[in-house]
Prior knowledge:
- The protein is α+β, with helices and mostly antiparallel strands.
- The protein has two domains: 2-109; 116-276, Glutaredoxin (3-Layer(aba) Sandwich), CATH 3.40.30.10.
- The protein contains six helices and ten strands.
- The strands form two sheets. It has a five-stranded antiparallel beta sheet with strand order 1-5-4-3-2, covered by helices on one side. The protein has a five-stranded mixed beta sheet with strand order 6-8-7-9-10.
- The termini are far apart.
Amino acid sequence: MLLMLRLLATTLLLNSLLGASILNKDIEQFLKKSFEVNPNIIALNVKVVQRTPVKQMKNWESFIISIDATVKAKPKPRQVKQKMIWFSNGIVMTQDLLDIKSGESLKDLVSPSFKQEYYKKENLIYGNENAKHKVAIFSDPLCPFCRRFVPEAINYMKKQPDKFAIYYYHFPLPSLHPAAVELVKAAIVSELQGKKDVVLKLYKVDIDANERDVKKILAAFNKEMKTNVKPSDLNSDAVKKHIVSDLNVADAVMVSGTPTIFFDGKLDKTKRKFQEVK
């Protein structure tokens, strides 16, 4: 269904928007008009949520666009939300720019800013909220690389609470690791009960990532955590609220894989900027 929003030419000519200075509303109206030619779209809202000059390209800007559409589907219409990246120099718009020397996609360099409002108290797992640096981690506890990297990173930073405030956001990948969904819920239950070091212990739970039996998943979780989380605990309103909050933040900053790390409000593609802090 998401592909419905991408059924248009890679490059669009801005016939009515000549010149480098473009208003957000002009971009929004132009894209909305372009998308609305798709007969499957019933209602559509297009909004520029961030625009940034492209350092490598004079007079070019990147635009992060939020799309909220109602599309035809059976048995009833469904809502589709997504974010897209576009580039424009005021004359043309394109969904990507390539560095002719390196072949690097400039799209990979565009990322939403991590706003202050996303640093929520319930996501602070270690450190002082007024620490010099804020680190936001999005992770799936059954992601193989995450299982090696995330505990290492957290243990490194937690020893310096005045330097690092560590914010953790649950981001299970159900298509890759089905068991992670229930593990994350169980972890939130334990956090709400006041258990300590839940996130670090979560990465030690011994369970097949493809396991779908909730009882088996909880048995492995409780064994590691020394807890007694029950299936009925996983669907409380508080648990649902926390998961929705984490996923909404992930969506806002366009997280698509794990681990994803933001260091002081900016996407850290190296994932190791915290090690550069003296």
